[in-house]
């Protein structure tokens, strides 16, 4: 249904768009009067007011051309409109392009549609008079600069006769070598004139990974087609749908409802069918606390279920480029209420106690994706998307987005990568802890409970080992009274403790005696508190066989969750003013 | 009672014709793929399979894969001539596919006999049932493409997806006619209701014999009962 939805999008969002027209940038305008005489001896420059170095974007008649010579009507490259080449072009080809353009204008002026059109006659008269050769060429013009012809101040391609003539022309060009075929269109299920190739392409800048302008439906190699054929012989699509597919796809991919983080290999765009006021995907990607609360309450009060069934539909398309072809990585079409339920589940599954009282319990999806990259401690931030050395999976964003939209598990490779990064960076913060919990819980049917807050009743030994590690780190920090150490207990043992906490806990317990002795002199109350806590936690770790020598990925995640929860627990419940934020690594920056 | 066989497998790819270069699968099995499975289990020149209904037994789930393929492929005529040499490495092309994961279908079909059939239809039906019971097949059936092996067996009591899974899939491939030049296809308006897709007897031809055939008539033809 993807193609049908794209056509539907084009019809509802773009209205009565002119068929086989595309947007393109123009640098120059050639002004003519109704007799076809140039208003001046040179071209008028067109400059975008926002970006002074760019031209003006206009919607003009255009069809895809790859390597062949194929003129567009009344607005095209300088080499087509005026026969102006540059050092990158061959004179013979430029002459060929210009001749094709002039022929097309003549064809327009003598067609049924253009015969009575004064604009078409004026443009044709200009070329017949040979005035094109007398125009002064601006120095900066290149062969590929767009030139639009205007008659009496209006672009000639906006003339009334253009649509009829241009549709006939494109039909003849795109109907294939044997002329257009008549048959059943796969998209609209009507018997219409069928295209041989889909008119229109998607600009490469909209499709990550594309090295050229791209097409969604294209059979340009024998092995791609049924029975070793090229062209759309066995993929019947009519002209109207073919054009709407391209315009709809460009509109979808360039809409504000589109995400393509730099360095990630895909672009995800989405839209809604029906009357939709809110945008759950924006909530997913921004995690505004008020919006999350509203979403969770909407889904769980059953308000939607009490009403008649929802008719709103959510559509999401994830694409990537493969040279000049569009790869559909994912296509989702689901009722809006199902999407809301899935996103609510996403927020519930990654809710996490913040390390500090002011922290957030829910995190934006982009932030979760960002945290899988390298932590740059000296800059106190994560490496940006797409920068060298980001150490981030190239498809992490679409993976997380897909899991959120479909309520499916996070791939185990994400958890393995995340834990690897936490070990390497020595950094665990709220979003990373949220992603850890998400990887353990989301989309899975398990009897195991993973609480967002500290869970002293957990049956998992690794979880309590993490808690013990956090306590030992806190004791050393409190005993130090803010003095800066070159290497803290955490610095030294954190990475190793994630895979094998035994050695770290044994050493920590031994050192804790000295730390507690020091702390007891300054703050006896705090020392007693740590004594009790440490005893409670170690009691939950059976002596000897409690901790395996090498922990599984699942246990490592539990260790880190216990560590994070214990730190957050102290920060939110202990009102002792001496309990200042940890300064040693692992850091807590959010 | 139509004949029924249950097929399942870890993956499937029923390629949509409009997205067949960077392949995207239909969400469910197509009738032509079902015919392929049935013919690989049992086929005789005297009979033709007619799929009536496809029940979807497991939720529709997807996965993607990307792999290296080649654009240098010999046609049958080239292969027969024996002079054509292939250069796979020089014609490497990478292609993506959105496939289906963990699928199971129950296919209901009828046997249509040709004029020269010399046995009653019951004989062919019994032969088919015996082969399904014993798990015998002429070639290993597959789910859309040969990479995705289909396992098959007698139908059990597993229920199709419930009414929450109603969906419209647009025009779907109904059948391929190899008797025309070039080969031609027929299509039908595929709709899943309660996890069941009813397949009409005839698909909509790509080019109607009479150009004056009304669109409404054609559509109703594809939506008609079995």
Automatic annotation (TrEMBL), chain A:
Biased composition (Low complexity): 571-583
InterPro entries according to UniProt: CRISPR-assoc_prot_Csd1-typ
Record region (Disordered): 567-590
Entry-linked NCBIfam families: cas_Csd1
The protein's name in its UniProt record: CRISPR-associated protein Csd1
Naturally occurring in which organism (per UniProt): Saccharothrix longispora
TrEMBL record, chain B:
Enzyme class (EC, first level): hydrolase
Pfam families attached to this UniProt entry: Cas_Cas5d
Coiled coil ranges: none
Record-listed E.C. numbers: 3.1.-.-
Similarity section: Belongs to the CRISPR-associated protein Cas5 family. Subtype I-C/Dvulg subfamily.
Protein name listed in UniProt: pre-crRNA processing endonuclease
InterPro entries, A to Z: CRISPR-assoc_prot_Cas5, CRISPR-assoc_prot_Cas5_N, CRISPR-assoc_prot_Cas5d
Key words, A-Z: Antiviral defense, Endonuclease, Hydrolase, Nuclease, RNA-binding
Role summary: CRISPR (clustered regularly interspaced short palindromic repeat) is an adaptive immune system that provides protection against mobile genetic elements (viruses, transposable elements and conjugative plasmids). CRISPR clusters contain spacers, sequences complementary to antecedent mobile elements, and target invading nucleic acids. CRISPR clusters are transcribed and processed into CRISPR RNA (crRNA).
């Amino acid at each position: 249904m993807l193609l049908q939805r794209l056509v539907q999008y084009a019809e509802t969002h773009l209205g009565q768009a002119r068929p086989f027209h595309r947007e393109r940038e123009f640098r120059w305008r050639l002004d003519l009067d109704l007799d076809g005489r140039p208003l001046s001896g040179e071209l008028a420059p067109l400059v975008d007011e926002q970006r002074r170095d760019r031209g003006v974007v206009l919607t003009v008649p255009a069809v895809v051309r790859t390597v062949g010579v194929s003129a567009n009507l009344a607005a095209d490259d300088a080499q087509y409109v005026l026969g102006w080449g540059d050092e990158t072009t061959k004179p013979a080809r430029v002459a060929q392009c210009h001749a094709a353009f002039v022929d097309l204008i003549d064809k327009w002026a003598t067609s049924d549609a253009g015969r009575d059109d004064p604009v078409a006659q004026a443009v044709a008269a200009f070329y017949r008079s040979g005035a094109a050769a007398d125009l002064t060429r601006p120095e900066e013009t290149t062969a590929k600069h767009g030139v639009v012809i205007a008659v009496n101040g209006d672009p000639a391609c906006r003339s009334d006769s253009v649509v009829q003539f241009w549709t006939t022309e494109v039909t003849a060009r795109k109907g294939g070598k044997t002329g257009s075929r008549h048959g059943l269109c796969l998209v609209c299920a009507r018997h219409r004139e069928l295209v041989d190739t889909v008119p229109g392409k998607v600009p490469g800048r909209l499709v990550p990974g594309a090295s050229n302008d791209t097409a969604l439906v294209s059979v340009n190699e024998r092995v791609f087609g049924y029975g070793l054929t090229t062209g759309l012989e066995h993929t019947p699509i009519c002209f109207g749908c073919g054009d709407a597919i391209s315009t709809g796809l460009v509109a979808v991919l360039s809409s504000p409802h589109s995400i393509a983080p730099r360095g990630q290999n895909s672009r995800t765009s989405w839209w809604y069918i029906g009357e939709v006021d809110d945008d759950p995907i924006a909530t997913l990607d921004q995690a505004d606390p008020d919006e999350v609360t509203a979403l969770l309450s909407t889904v769980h009060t059953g308000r939607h279920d009490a009403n008649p069934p929802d008719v709103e539909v959510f559509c999401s398309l994830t694409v990537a480029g493969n040279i000049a072809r569009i790869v559909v990585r994912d296509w989702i079409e689901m009722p809006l209420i199902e999407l809301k339920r899935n996103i609510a589940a996403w927020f519930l599954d990654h809710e996490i106690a913040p390390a500090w009282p002011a922290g957030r319990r829910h995190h934006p999806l982009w932030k979760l994706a960002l945290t899988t990259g390298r932590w740059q401690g000296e800059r106190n931030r994560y490496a940006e998307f797409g920068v060298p050395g980001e150490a981030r999976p190239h498809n992490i964003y679409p993976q997380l987005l897909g899991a959120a939209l479909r309520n499916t598990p996070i791939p185990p490779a994400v958890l393995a990568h995340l834990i690897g990064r936490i070990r390497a960076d020595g950094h665990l913060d709220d979003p990373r802890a949220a992603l850890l919990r998400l990887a353990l819980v989301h989309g899975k049917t398990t009897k195991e409970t993973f609480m967002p807050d500290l869970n002293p009743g957990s049956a998992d030994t690794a979880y309590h080992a993490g808690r013990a590690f956090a306590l030992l780190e806190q004791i050393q920090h409190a005993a130090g009274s803010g003095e800066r150490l070159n290497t803290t207990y955490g610095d030294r043992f954190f990475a190793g403790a994630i895979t094998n906490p035994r050695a770290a806990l044994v050493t920590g317990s031994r050192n804790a005696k000295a730390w507690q002795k020091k702390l007891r002199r300054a703050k006896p109350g705090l020392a007693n508190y740590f004594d009790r806590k440490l005893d409670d936690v170690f009691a939950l770790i059976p002596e000897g066989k409690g901790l395996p020598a090498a922990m599984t990925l699942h246990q490592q995640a539990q260790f880190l969750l216990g560590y994070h929860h214990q730190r957050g627990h102290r920060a939110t419940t202990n009102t002792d003013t001496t309990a200042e934020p940890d300064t040693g690594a692992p850091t807590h920056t959010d | 009672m139509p004949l029924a066989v249950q097929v399942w497998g870890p993956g499937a790819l029923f390629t949509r014709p409009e997205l067949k270069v960077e392949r995207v699968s239909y969400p469910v099995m197509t009738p032509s793929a079902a015919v392929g499975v049935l013919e690989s289990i049992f086929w005789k020149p005297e009979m033709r399979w007619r799929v009536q209904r496809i029940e979807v037994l497991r939720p529709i789930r997807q996965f993607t894969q990307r792999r290296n393929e080649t654009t240098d492929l010999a046609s049958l005529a080239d292969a027969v001539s024996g002079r054509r040499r292939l250069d796979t490495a020089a014609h490497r092309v990478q292609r993506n596919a959105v496939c289906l994961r963990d699928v199971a279908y129950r296919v209901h079909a009828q046997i249509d006999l040709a004029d020269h059939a010399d046995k009653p239809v019951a004989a062919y039906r019994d032969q088919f049932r015996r082969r399904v019971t014993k798990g015998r097949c002429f070639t290993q059936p597959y789910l859309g493409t040969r990479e995705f092996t289909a396992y098959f067996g007698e139908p059990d009591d597993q229920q199709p997806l419930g009414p929450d899974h109603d969906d419209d899939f647009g025009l779907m491939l109904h059948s391929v006619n190899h008797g025309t030049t070039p080969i031609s296809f027929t299509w039908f308006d595929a709709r899943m209701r309660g996890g069941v897709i009813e397949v009409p007897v005839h698909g909509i031809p790509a080019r109607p014999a009479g150009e004056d055939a009304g669109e409404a008539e054609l559509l109703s033809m594809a939506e008609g009962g079995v």
